[in-house]
Write a structure and sequence with these properties.
The protein is 46% helix and 14% strand. The protein is an alpha/beta fold and 327 residues long.
């Protein structure tokens, strides 16, 4: 895993940012998913194929995948509680098979839930009295699984041009056949497509991070974005995402804490300007010294050997420069 992947994963693990992403996706920014109710889960998705009949045992082959972040929560709407699993996949690069990747994660999670229900029934010894179908699957008629919503967050300035659904990955135009081909679409947050109004719907630093990434390839637009923000205080995890994704050479202290990104970028620009001025002065001073030495040689006031030595050059190098006009 690269550094950019590591910092984005750590950043999205934070409950406030995680909840913010889903509140934007599902509820248009309304604070419905509560950070305090999020519980992080094991991101290992494991599924063991089921037996086909009562005389057959499940195979020992295990399918195993690892999500970026997976959390469980309770969402309250109109006094009703919805128990749901929320998963985030961070992409620093465009993944052109993302629909297949996500459907595997979700299918494995559902398979894992069914396996856990069956295991619980077996351990509790309550498998008697149920019909053959229930006994075979270990999953009873009244059992339920928790829905899974997977969100892809693109941490890149380029527009996501990959497929957004399973069918987009197929070369099939027969409408009759398509009726029988299951589709699967991905839910995506792509900075390139976010408008100013969209960015204002985020309540955490995620809006500032995505906004910075969105404008990072346009210096004029980025400068306006920072000027409009004036103060952009964010935690160090968010600042590291900006630093590593956009290659902005700002200093971010190790560990937890906060940083004003607007000030950090302005300080970086001022420091770069000062370094440029210092380099220019040094180069100008060196060029002036060289011109003086050349004039002394041409006036026969100084021999070329001594002039070359003072300029830290060989005689051949000095002669070559002396015979060329200085720019």
């Amino acid at each position: 895993m690269g550094m950019a992947d590591t910092v984005t994963k750590e950043y999205m693990r934070g409950n406030k940012v995680f909840a913010d992403a889903f509140n934007y996706l599902i509820y248009d920014g309304e604070q419905v998913v509560k950070p305090a109710l999020l519980q992080e889960l094991d991101t290992t998705e494991i599924a063991i194929p089921f037996a086909l009949d009562e005389n057959e045992s499940p195979t020992e082959d295990v399918v195993q995948k690892y999500r970026d972040v997976l959390k469980s929560t309770v969402i309250m709407q109109d006094s009703r509680a919805s128990y749901i699993l929320l998963g985030v996949e961070n992409q620093t690069e465009i993944h052109y098979a993302m629909p297949v990747r996500n459907i595997i994660y979700d299918a494995l999670q559902y398979g894992k839930q069914v396996s856990e229900v069956a295991k619980r029934h077996k351990n509790q010894g309550d498998r008697k009295g149920h019909n053959k179908g229930e006994y075979l699957s270990g999953f009873y008629k009244e059992d339920r699984i928790r829905p899974v919503v997977t969100l892809v967050v693109h941490f890149g300035a380029d527009e996501w041009d990959g497929p957004l659904s399973l069918r987009e990955m197929m070369d099939l135009e027969d409408e009759k056949l398509l009726e029988y081909v299951q589709d699967y679409r991905i839910f995506l947050i792509d900075p390139y497509k976010l408008t100013k109004a969209d960015l204002k719907k985020f309540s955490s630093s995620l809006g500032d991070v995505l906004g910075y990434i969105k404008y990072s390839k346009d210096k004029k637009a980025l400068s306006k974005f920072l000027n409009d923000s004036q103060v952009m205080v964010m935690d160090n995890d968010a600042a590291r995402v900006i630093r590593d994704i956009t290659n902005t050479p700002i200093y971010v202290p190790d560990g937890k804490g906060e940083i004003d990104m607007c000030k950090a970028v302005r300080d970086m620009i001022d420091e770069s300007k000062q370094e440029g001025i210092a380099v220019g002065k040094a180069e100008g001073k060196a060029e002036g010294k060289l011109i003086t030495l050349i004039d002394l040689v041409r006036d026969n006031s100084l021999n070329i050997e001594k002039a070359a030595a003072k300029a830290n050059m060989t005689v051949e190098q000095f002669e070559k420069i002396m015979n060329q006009p200085l720019e």
